[in-house]
Every structure is written in C-alpha cells, then in structure tokens.
Amino acid sequence: MKLKNLFVITAAALAAAPALADINIGVVASLTGPAAALGAETRKAVSLFPTSVGGEKVNFILLDDATDPTAAVKNVRKLISEDKVDAILGPNLISTAVAMADVANGEKVPMISVAPLDVSGDKRGFVFRSEPSADLMVQRVVADMVAAGVKTVGFIGFSDSWGEVLHKALTKAAEGKITIVATERYGRADPSVQAQILKLISAKPDAVFVGASGTPAAMPQITLRERGFKGRIYQSHGVTSKEFLRVGGKNVEGALIPVGPVLVAEQLPDSHPTKKNAVAFVQTLEAKYGPDSRSTFAGATWDAWLLLQNAIAGAQKGKAKAGTPEYRAALRDGLEKTSKLVGTNGVYSMAAGDHAGYDASAIVMIKVENNHWKLVK
Amino acid sequence: MDAEIIAMLGQDGVTNGAIYALLALALVLVFAVTRVIFIPQGEFLAWGALTMAALEGGQFPATVWLLVGCGVLTLAVDAFSATGRRNIGRSVLWNLAYPLALAGLLWGLPIAELPTAARVLIALAIVVPMGPMLYRVAFQPVAEAPVLVLLIISVAVHLAMVGLGLLIFGPEGSRTQPFSEAQFELGSLMIGGHTLVVLGASVVLIVALYLFFDRTLYGKALRATAINRNGARLMGISPALAGRLTFFLAAVIGVLSGLLVAPITTVYYDSGFLIGLKGFVAAIIGGLASYPLAAGGAILVGLLESFSSFWASAFKDVIVFTLIIPVLMWRSLTSHHVEEEE
Amino acid sequence: MNANTQTRAAPGAPSRLSPKLVLGVFLVLLVAAPLVLPEFYVTLLNYVGLSALVALGLVLLTGVGGLTSFGQAAFVGLGGYTTAWLTTAQDLPGWLAFIGSSPWFTLVAGLVLTATVAVILGSVTLKLSGHFLPLGTMAWGISLYFLFGNMEFLGGHGGLSGIPAVSVFGYELLDNGQFYYLVWAFVLAALFTTRNLLDSREGRAIRALKGGMVMAESMGVDTSRARMVIFVIAALHACAAGWLYAHLQRFVNPTPFGLHIGIEYLFMAVVGGAGQVWGALVGAGVITVLKQWLQDILPKVFGSAGNFEVIIFGVMMVIVLQRARDGLWPLIAGLVPVREAPKAIDSAAAPLARKPQPPMGETILEARDVTRKFGGLVANNNMSLHVKAGEILALIGPNGAGKSTMFNQLSGVDTPTSGDVLFRGKSVAGHSSREIAGLGMSRTFQHVRLLPKMTVLENVAIGAHRRGSKGVLPAAWRLDREEEARLLREAAIQVERVGLKDFMFAEAGSLALGQQRILEIARALCSDPCLLLLDEPAAGLRLKEKQALAELLRRLKSEGMAVLIVEHDMDFVMSLVDRVVVMEFGEKIAEGLPAEIQKNPAVLEAYLGGV
User: Fold this and answer.
1) Most buried by CB count within 10 Å: which residue of A67, B50, B78, C333?
2) Angle ∠(B10,B15,B20) on CA atoms, nearest 5
3) In sequence order, which residues have a C-beta less than 8 Å from that of residue C62 and are 6 or more positions away?
4) Is the pLDDT of residue B289 over 80?
C-alpha cells in the first residue's frame, strides 16, 4: 500500500513527459560529483542545441548521473522507458559510459558517448562516440616528444579511471620510442604531490606527462616547477578549460596539450577543415557564457549533436516516425553511414566496424602562453 | 632515496601534519565538550579557503549570503523556542543585524584592492559565525541525545554543507596566494616561506588555545564542561553557551586551516572531507581525548602520507586510512571492560 | 531511555486489520508490480530492493543493536567484486575457475569472504565504545574503495564489465522484470529471517545491547558475541545486495561502493525507522524515489543543477533525528492499523531443566577480606560476609558507605584490589559477571535496567538466556520454536510468581517504578539462581507492594534460595531478614540478627549521630 503511494507521487512528478510525436533526445551528464566540472561543459553545449530539426520539434531531457554508474543506468532506463527517447547523448566518464552502453545497446537506442568509451565489438552496435580516443591524443603527444628529442618520460596521473586510461595509452604509444621511467598516482583532492614529484624528478625524465583533468591537473605541474624541473611538461586533453589556467597561473606556462581544434579555433590556419565550424561554435558559446568559456568538452558534446542531427535529417527522408523502434534503427543506420562530417572538434566518418571514426589529423598541439591557449605551429 | 629526499618528504609531511593537527585539536575539543563527532570540520576549511579565493579574485564572496541565510534560520529557531525568545534581542543582533551589516560593508569595500590581512579578517568574519549558528540549529535541540545520534546528524550536516558548497562555489577549485613566497636554504634543503608560515601559525594557534583554556574564564568553563557536563551545569555554566563557544572555536580553527592550506593545494568544495578525515585518524590516535597525542598523531599521519606517496602513490589513501586499524586494535587491547552506552 | 516510551493505540480497536491480511495484500502487490507497472518503476523497485537489503542489515545493527556503520557500501562492494571477478576473469586457477562457473557459487564465495572480513574488522572495533566503530567503518570504507580502484585484476577505476546473467533452474534472468523477482525474493527472505531472529532467544540478547549491556552480561548474555553476530549479519546482507547489484548492472566499478553511498544506506535505515525491519523497506523506498523525484523537480525550481538532493537529504536527516527519531515507519504503521497478536504461551511446553539446588544451610557466597581501592580512595576495606542457602542477608549502611561498590565486587561487575569472593566454594573474583551468572548468581539493579519497549514477558525471558542453546540460524528459520516455547513458559511462570500476571504483555516501560523493580526480580529468577542479589528492591514500592515483595522473598527463602539485599528501608529490612551486615566508610561495623543490630551503639551512632 505504501509502495503504491510512492508510485502516485513519482507518477505525478513524471507526468510532464513530452508528447510522443516530437523527437526526444536524452542527455546524461555528470552535473554533480567528482566529474561535475565536465558535466558543466556538457550542459553549456546542450543549452545551445536547436529546438527543431527540419521542422520537427526536438526535446532534450538532461539528467544528472552524479558521476555514479548506478545513477547513470537508472537515468538511461528512465529516458528509454519513460521519456521514450530516440537517442541518448553523453555521459562524461568512461565508467558511466560503459554502464550506460550495455543498457542502450540492449534496448536498441542509439547512444553517442562524449567519453572516450571503447565502441568496438558486437555489444556496441548502437553505441557511437564523438570524443577522440585517449590513444589518438596520446599518440599525438608522443609524436611531439619524439620530434623534440625526448628519450625518457615520467608519468603522474589521477588514481582513477581517467589516469588509468591515459597511462595505458602512454604505455602503448611510447612503446619502442620513449622509455617511461616513473609512474606516479595522486588523488584529485590531495593536499600535496610533493612526494610523487620528488620521485619523478629523481628518475630524471626528459619530459613529464600529467595524466589528469581539470584544475587538479595544475598541481603536479606547479610542484614540478617549484622543485626546479626544467624539462617539457605535457598535459592531457582533460585540462582544457579556462579554470585550469586560472588555478595554474604562471606555473602552468609552457604546458603542452593535445586538443581537438575547437579550443584554438581562431588561431587555426584557414586550411584546417574544422575552422569555420569551430569559430562559429566558439562565438555562440562565448556570447552566452563570456570570454574564454570554451572547452573541448563542450565541443565534443556539440559534435555529438551534429552527428545525431545529421542522422535525424537522414531519417526524416524515411517513413519511420519518431518514438518508434524503426525510427531508432534508422538513426543508428544513419549514424553508421556518417561520412566526412565536419564538426567543431574534428571530422567524423563512421562505418560498421568503426563507430568512433575520428580523423586524427584534426588534433593539434597547443601551449599555454601568457595564460592563454596558443596553437603550436 | 637519499637524505635530501627524506628531508623534503619530512618537510612536506610535517607541513600537512601541522594542518591535520589543528583539525584534530578542534575535533577533540568539540567531542570533549559536546560529544559531537564533528564531521563538518572539513567544510569550514573548504569554505574558508574558497571565500578567501573569491576575495582574492575581487569577487563578492557568495558565502555572505549563506551567512545571512544561516542567521535567519538561527533566528527562526530561537524565535520558536522558549529559551531562545528570552534573549531574542541578542539573537536579532547576531543572527540578522550582523550578517546584513557585513554584507553591506563588503558591498561598499573595494574587494580587489584589500590587503591580505584584511582579506583574512573578512574570511574569518564571514565563515566563523556559521559555527555557532550551526550548533544552535542542528545540535542544541538534541544536545542530550546519544553520541550515535549526534554522529549521524553530524554526517547529515556535512552532506548538506557539501551540497551548498557546490552550489555557491561551483565544481572548480581554487588556490590562493601564499602568505610568503620566500625560500630559505638550510644546508642543501630548500624551505618554502609558506611552510614556515604554516608551522608558525599552527604553533601560535596551539599556544593560544592553551592559554585560552588555562587562563580565561570561558576556557575554564569549557574545560569544566568537558570533564563533567552535569557538574558544570550545576556550577552555572550553560551547556548551550559551551556548545556555541566550542563550535565558534572549531570554526576559527577550520577557517584558519583553510587559509593555510589553500596556497599549498587546490581546494574544492568537497576537499574538506578527506582532509578532515585525516584529522580524524589523528584524533582517534589520541582516543578523541588527548590533545598532545592527537597532535602527535597528526604529524604521524602527515609523514605517513608523504612517505607512502613516495613509495606507492596509488595506495597512499589506503595506507593512511588503514593506519586506523592497528590504532583501534591497540586501543581495543588496552581496554577490556563492558561499556554501557549512554 | 525510560522516559522515551511510546504510547500505542489500544489493541482490539474495531477497525484493526489482521496481520495476515495486510501481509497478503503486500505480497500480492509485490508479485503483481512488474506485470502492471511501467518498466522504469520496475527498475526503481529493483534498486529499492537492493538498498532495502543493505538497510535491513543496518536496522539490525543500528536500530536494534545500537552500533553504526558508514561502511556498508564497502561490504556491498566485496559481494559485487567477488562475483564480478570470479565470473569474468579468464585464467583463474582450477578451483577458482570452478567457483566462477556459476554466479551461485560466487555468491557463497562472496558471503564467506565478507564474513571473514567482518569478523576481523569486528574483532578490532567492536570492543571499543560506540563511536569508534562508525569512525573505523568510515576509514576502512574509504580504503577499500581505493583498493578496488587500484587493483589491476579488478579492472581498476574503470571497473569490470561483461558479468554474466544469473540463471535460476537453467533460466537466464536477462530482463529487469525477471530480475525483480530474484531481488525481492532475497529481500523477503532477509526480512522474515531478521524478524524471526529478533523474536527469539538470540534476538532478545541482541535487543538488550542497546541500553542494557551490563544487565545483559549479568543475565549471562555474551554481549561481545551478540555485537559480532549482528555486525556479520549486516555485512552478509550487504554482500548479498552487492552480488545482486553486479548481476543486475552486469558491470561494477568502485563508485557505488564509496563512502557517500554507505552514508546513504544509513540514512535509509534511519529515515525509515531503524528500530523496525519494515523501516528498512520504507527508508530504501522513500530515499530512492525521493532522489529520483528531486532530480526531476529541483533543477526546474532552482533553474540550475546542483547537489540539491544532497542538501535536502541532509536537512531531512537532521529534522528526522530531531523530531521523529523512530523514523517514518511508526507514522506509516499508524495509517494501517494492524492487530497485534499477543505472544502465545504454551502451558504444555516441557519445563526447563533446573540446576540441583544446594542443601539448606550450605554457604553459598563468601567474601573474604575484600578491599577495593580507587586510586587513593579506599571504597571497601577488609569486608567479609557470607550468605547461606535458605537465608536472607541484608547489607545496610548510610549513603556513601560503599554498599554499591561491595555489590559490584560480589557480582563480578568489578574486581577487588585484594581479597577473594567465593561462590559455592569457587573463587569468582576477577571473573566476568556472565560467568558468575552461569554459576547460579542473579541480580537486580539499583537503577532499573529494563528494555522499555519490550513486553514484560520478553524482558523476563532474557533472564533465561543461558537455559536455552539455540543459535542464530535456527532462530532465523524458526527451528527454535520448541525451545522458545519452553523459555517463554518459564518466563510466564516467573511473571506470575512475582504477581505481574496482568501486565504480561504490557511494555515494560509503561510499568510503575515499583513494578519495574519486581519485574527485575522475575527476570533474575528466570535464570534458575541459587543466590539472588537485590539492590534496593523496595525503593519506590507502596506498602501493599512491599508486603507482597516480602512475602515473595520469604517464600523463596523457604525453597532454599540464598538472598542478599542492599536496602535503605529499615522497617522492610528488619522485619524480613535473618541477619544484617552494617557498613560505614567502606568497613563492616556490625553484623548480627536484626534485633541485635537495632540496639548496636556503633550502628546507632552511624545512622543518627554520625554528623
């Protein structure tokens, strides 16, 4: 009896479900919890999404996963069974993405991950990705290191899934080219990384790669500089928001970062394929959120939407109506047929065997100069 | 690992240990006087640090509004309780007039141009009063409840405060300017000026606390309450006053530790909890009763953290928090009687 | 605690429903739910069930036993990770691979592992006073979280995926709707076993932990063991929930086993009503649904996202603990008036075995030169006394004479600094009060120590703890009913014997103070003692009651019982007892027949002219 009451309460809360004829898109992001900073970027991009595509109304339902896979799965189930969404965008982290992908694939709802989730294999038929993989990014870093004559590298990264992903990517990319002489871990909220840095420095690497994200990524670099480390310091593409610059201040000067081109849109050579799109996106974003509010995360979310928008436009030519399994299948097929779609952060071409078709040549190296992002030529 | 690295790790460990020591002292104090295991201690640290960061950034600190909100809530609780109504005038003054006056003052001040000392004072003035307000609202109505209930309330308050922290400070962290950027050379060892500031400030605070408890009437009243609550009440020491005073002190210590820690590390809205918990490990080493043992334990925790970061950084937190198990085992072996719960 | 008595609506009011009917409706709703509800609610109900399982352990631990853990999520993690690792890892050694071949084997493996960990952690923290346990669980909740995240073979922070589905009789539970039945089968099994357990000999011992530890020990309850039992049971519940979680989610990573989730479980138990098994269900339901609901509503109200639900949960907890410490369950239970069936007493149950009583006149208890010093203070100095079977001895003296200290030396609560206490010829100084209780000494307390919310009958039955032997598992599965009937019959006999028959099923807290003292005597008698130690039994009694008490004690004496009473009431003592020992300043100043003592100048001096 009491359970029934609870249902009535919930049902009332959920009664405002959107009409069936519209296209409904679910977005799951980490608005709270440890990855809240990433979720905030996703939210910025979502706020810029259009309200209709080709005359059809599109509703976006943004849910918070609190950086917790359990909540993420609950959200997906709710989006699918209550909101009858036609596709899902997000989430921000690999751990939440893995959990969500199983459900989305099982329920045959197309999902475009903004986290660098592995989307190969038969259990990922409905899962795509707009974020370039960490491997591609780190390969770019290693290429830069090799070009600069770096022989040894030290790694310091988060003791979480992101740090792990980057460490694996670095190990793979560096194989046979550069020796990893030290591997250290630290926590997002640690008061100090002195000890780890001491150990890193004592291994005397030519360069250090910081496998972290957001503002906590500044701390190792600050400590490295304080301890007199003179070598090159590389950061991952997880740091690219202005908060990193604010917190890092003068100590993060010179940091080298592989990024999707959106972050330095204006500085791109005119020949860069994404320049036009990237500049337009950055201008819209910064008109709303103020100067320097850009980030690659917002860019990746935006590109996820562009991929989907392209598929929706394709599906509109067919007969299937939004809200039906046929429509979702059509979206999936449309996504898989994406060919040379120019986003803000890169160029995408999907195929049956490649649901993450990101063209690596779009990745650029940038450097922090005078507390701004500067494209490395 | 050579002597230089040992010295540097030691320096790092002692610096962090000093901050844990301050927190541990506050935790022991609060527990002794009110029997509250004060989990939100860390939140005062984070709020203090982030308020300071906002001031440095020239922004109007949003914590002021929180102070106003807390004040209004406290006033409401006072107004609805018989004892509170008796002193309603004073309550209006402290819980309504003061926060509003502070907000007004800050509105008029050129925040971006204030000297560091003024910023420190403002950060204290904003965050510290929330300590006693918190006691009044959350703990005073259940002051006689079992320790367990107080602990659960404490955790609940902590959660609410972290949520509020995210709301007002956002998910990103901040660092503040060090109080001193000087570097001293001692043999081959470089000592940062801020390290000395942290150590110095901790020692000064500990001495000040000692003098407060040893020399002043209020300090003696608190000590009396800690030793025997009912006895103190019979002697005319109001437990409510003792509670508020304790929370005031805890908030002062929390905010000051926040100001000390913010130049060393990036502080986030939820940073306080883990730092506070390390203070707890230290306090538990002191059996939640002994101040010197707790302070010693804090230095031990700092050193352990520093050295384990060096040897096995991925397992650092595992090592620090597992330290509590041998400590508890030792305590468990040395106490062997059936305890009656309160 | 005594004053915290709850008044319940009078039983037998006209509109009361039969408990079987209410339970039946509940079960029908539960079975029908996935058939009629939209899919998302079934998903939610699955999570409610998982949380309820963990919260149920906490009800036992916190609400009933007065212990608290913030680290239950870590036990959930142990269960989840055990099965996830064993069922997904590729090259395991033979026997581990065998366990990993079926989720049902990994469930057992997880339970065994969890029990081991819980026993180790419990032995470290459970002996310490209450607040160290929660702090300890907080610390190890964090360290286990990081341990999960840093173990390469557990998939690190990224987690393990590809966990197989559970099969029941060869049928794979792939769908949420199917898994629902598995989850709720677990929850119901846990609910009923927990309820059964609480309504048993072991259950009374567990309930005695909260607010009656010294009493429970003197009644022969091993309180450390009882604490360990509930700690392990709570951990096992959590482990089972973790196993279910892993096979529902088919993916695990460290996040859902972190400290903040552990705190949430505790909130569920407290909000629902930590003293009641159904409270776990209510708490899990309310928090899970509320969280979902707040997530939908709050951003619309506040216009931006934030951790609003956390703020609201925090504030809600504070309010619940300030205003309604029993949680929501009593409020909900009030809406559905269920008839309470009084416990049946089977008068045909076989009587409990009795110890052979010592012959009349044998010296039962003897104190030899007992001295107890607290630092420089000598509370008892060279005290000697003895009590024989079939005799009532009174220990009297002015306030502060050291009677209570002496009482503690005799009953094993405290250990003499020097001297010896012989009980039936055996030295018992330094032995625990539990051991001494087993030898046939039983006592009452100066400040009444009852469990106010338990019935008179159940309170008395605690006294018979050592006369039963059935443990936790038989109790959980109701294999203890024959022994339980015998215990209850014995308790009922003792309740009648002391004249509280009319209050048999009343809550002990609702009795007048004098009656509560009598109840304590019944409880003491229930342990089949040959010596009764009574600490001020006549205090607070009216004249009639005193006469009845005196009558009872005389009867016991005539049956061969030895009785030692510490008492203030001179009229009561002098008309009742055989001999009197008088204490002052920790020493014996006189001993003799009541008539002699009344004339003894030293005694008169002590009582009248001492100042």
Assistant:
1) B50
2) 115
3) B148, C68, C69, C266, C269, C270, C274
4) no
The mean pLDDT value for C490-509 works out to 92
pLDDT digits (tens, 9 = 90+) for C198-250: 999 999 999 988 867 888 888 989 988 999 999 999 999 999 999 999 999 88
Domain regions of chain A by residue span: 2-132+295-362, 134-259
> Given an 8 Å threshold on Cβ–Cβ distance, is A69 in contact with C297?
no
Cβ pair B324:C135 closer than 8 A = yes
The CATH H-level (homologous superfamily) assignment of domain A2-132+295-362 is Response regulator (3.40.50.2300)
Q: What is the pLDDT of residues B3-22, one digit of tens each?
A: 878 888 888 899 999 999 99
DSSP three-state, residue B38: coil
**Other Cβ atoms closer than 10 A to A280:** 12
Instruction: Please write the tens of the pLDDT for every residue from A245-258.
Output: 888 888 899 999 99
What are the tens digits of pLDDT across the range C52-100? 999 999 999 988 888 888 899 999 999 999 999 999 988 888 888 888 8
C-beta separation of A73 from C249 below 8 A: yes
Mean pLDDT in residue range A83-98: 90
Of A7, A66, A69, the CB nearest to C41: A7
Each residue of C415-434: b (16+ CB within 10 Å) or e? ebeebebbbbeeebbebbbb
**What is the average per-residue pLDDT within A266-292?**
91
Residues in chain B: 342
Residue with tokens 């964090």: C142
pLDDT at B51: 95
Instruction: Give the closest-approach CA distance of A217 to chain B in angstroms.
Output: 10
* Chains with 3 or more CB pairs under 8 A to chain A: B, C
Nearest CA in chain B to C434: B338
Question: What single letter denotes the amino acid at residue B116?
Answer: T
Q: Give the separation between CA C346 and CA C482, rounded to whole angstroms.
A: 10
Nearest CB among C45, C245, C293 relative to A9 is that of C293
Q: Which residues of C294-332 are buried (b: 16+ CB within 10 A; e: fewer)?
A: bbbebbeeeeebbbbbbbbbbbbbbebbbeebbbbbeeb
Determine the residue type at B67. Answer: L
> Which residues in chain C are closer than 8 Å to B277, comparing Cβ atoms?
138-139, 142
CA-nearest residue of chain C to B269? Answer: C307
Reduced 3-state DSSP string for C107-176: HHHHHHHHHHHHHHHHHHHCCCCCCHHHHHHHHHHHHHHHHHHHCHHHCHHHCEECCCCCEECCEECCCH
d(CA A148, CA A145) in angstroms, rounded, equals 5
Arithmetic mean of pLDDT, B61-67: 92
Flag whether pLDDT at B339 surpasses 60.
no
Quick one: which H or E segment has residue C378? strand C377-388
Mark yes or no for CB contact B152/C266 under 8 Å. Answer: yes
Residue C301: what pLDDT?
A: 65
* Residue of chain A with shortest Cα separation from B307: A195
- Residue range A134-259, CATH number: 3.40.50.2300
Asked if B307 reaches chain A (Cβ–Cβ under 8 Å), the answer is: yes
> Across the interface, do B318 and C147 touch by the CB < 8 Å criterion?
yes
What pLDDT is attached to residue C11? 45
**A73 to C256: CB separation less than 8 angstroms, yes or no:** no
- CB-based contact A231:A207 (threshold 8 Å): yes
Who has greater pLDDT, B248 or C602?
Answer: B248
Average pLDDT rounded to a whole number, residues B159-169:
89
Residue of chain B whose alpha carbon sits nearest to that of A184? B313
- Map tokens 């109840």 to a residue: C519
Closest chain B C-alpha to A354 CA, distance in angstroms: 34
Domain A2-132+295-362 and domain A134-259 have a common topology: yes
From chain B, the residues in CB contact with A218 under 8 A are 175, 266
- Using a CB-CB cut-off of 8 Å, the residues of chain C touching A39 are 305
DSSP state of C46: H
